Amino acid sequence: MGGCDRTFQAHQSGLLQKLLQEDSTYDYDLIVIGGGSGGLACAQEAAILGKKVMVLDFVVPSPQGTSWGLGGTCVNVGCVPKKLMHQAALLGQALNDSRKFGWEYVKHNWETMTEAIQNHISSLNWGHRLSLREKSVDYVNSYGEFVEHHRIKATNRKGQETSYTAAKFVIATGERPRYLGIQGDKEYCITSDDLFSLPYCPGKTLVVGASYVALECAGVLTGLGLDVTVMVRSVLLRGFDQEMAERVGSYMEQHGVKFLRKFIPVMVKQLEKGSPGKLKVVAKSTEGPETIEGVYNTVLLAIGRDSCTRKMGLDKIGVKINKKTGKIPVNDVEQTNVPYVYAVGDILEGKLELTPVAIQAGKLLARRLFGGCLEKCDYINVPTTVFTPLEYGCCGLSEEKAIEVYKKENLEVYHTFFWPLEWTVAGRDNNTCYAKIICNKFDNYRVIGFHVLGPNAGEVTQGFAAAMKCGLTKQLLDDTIGIHPTCGEVFTTLEITKSSGLDITQKGC
């Protein structure tokens, strides 16, 4: 509790008495608020360790009325439907390629695709509920809000309220898409919350934003044959390696995506109702007085996400949040400033917003709380992939960050273009796919940044991420025999450095 002053304050507020009470006086050992990846992982691990656990999960419908089942963003409106739609778009590209291999073309049907994807998601929702039931975790489909120390109020869809107490709480409420705050945005625009279950083909679409969500959605829609424009306020993929980000954008532009750079929307007006209807968008330049107008069937906002922490009574028990972002500061064991309250997932301040990170953090948190484990979640060298039409996988530092941390003169960057064998007969560009590693010259040329732009980049990156955890060096890559013909083998034959200035264009496979 700290010094005697804080202890006395805790006694006056009643917190000290509650902390000294036996856990058996509470309804539950642990209540998890949020039924997404991190929350479910934590709840189930705690139950395996013999604790009495409840999960509260409630999806507030989007402004367009979209809601979903148990499993959180990843399962319902994130990773899973995104990757499946990405696969649909890749199949479209493969069909184009297949003409060179002797196949005939077929037509895409939006409704068939979304129905199949939603059926799969429904099976995952049911699987999560079944898993909780098998582990004797109580699942309550209600909105959780703290009313006092160790007590929450759960409100269901009918407005009925129930009170529960627990010795410990884990907040895993995740984030929801941000809106622009302009005329017509919530009335007429959709977000990733709505896209994957949209009952009609969106038609000509304006995607607002330059995040990975924006570029992934734009890539999917373009791959399905739609007319897509991306409106970008500043840079693509902020926080990612900017050379790779620009290569991603360049590929998308060459394959049909239009970019409007340095513009932001100021108004969205409905011209016609329909499925889809017609919308007029007025946008202004970020660099001057210029304004432009455009007409689209659908406007998809992907400008960022806001933490779901502001309306759950955290102020009533003294949990601190970042007033600007809503993020929750935690220590190295995911503990908030209130000792019995923890948090995992996208709502953490300064941590990665990735599903596997939330799952790992949730499991390890439960093991520390109830299993005597000391292992903490390692947030360093976490791999990720942006599922744009040409996938971008990375692990470790961007080139910009590496220069900031280690200084340019202490680094060696090896890079090359490569030409996947599958692209050769199809006649696709032999100088588009790109590989890059960043090495620390004064640490045995240890690989501190791994970047690949090419087919199946996620699959390629996952294996190399494990190697980076083990201290991968340039010499170890050189000593590794590649699998031929694959994309991943390019990292075993990297020779050209950026500092050499030598040509990296490819002449053959």
Automatic annotation (TrEMBL):
Alphabetical list of InterPro entries matching this protein: FAD/NAD-bd_sf, FAD/NAD-binding_dom, FAD/NAD-linked_Rdtase_dimer_sf, GSHR/TRXR-like, Pyr_nuc-diS_OxRdtase, Pyr_nucl-diS_OxRdtase_dimer, Pyr_OxRdtase_I_AS, Thioredoxin/glutathione_Rdtase
GO cellular component terms, A-Z: cytosol; mitochondrion
Entry keyword set: Disulfide bond, FAD, Flavoprotein, NAD, NADP, Nucleotide-binding, Oxidoreductase, Redox-active center, Selenocysteine
Pfam families referenced in this protein's UniProt entry, alphabetically: Pyr_redox_2, Pyr_redox_dim
Gene (UniProt): TXNRD3
Lineage per the UniProt record: Eukaryota, Metazoa, Chordata, Craniata, Vertebrata
Residues that coordinate or bind NAD(+): G209, A210, S211, Y212, V213, A214, L215, E216, G304
Record EC number: 1.8.1.9
Organism (species): Lynx canadensis
Name of the molecule in the record: thioredoxin-disulfide reductase (NADPH)
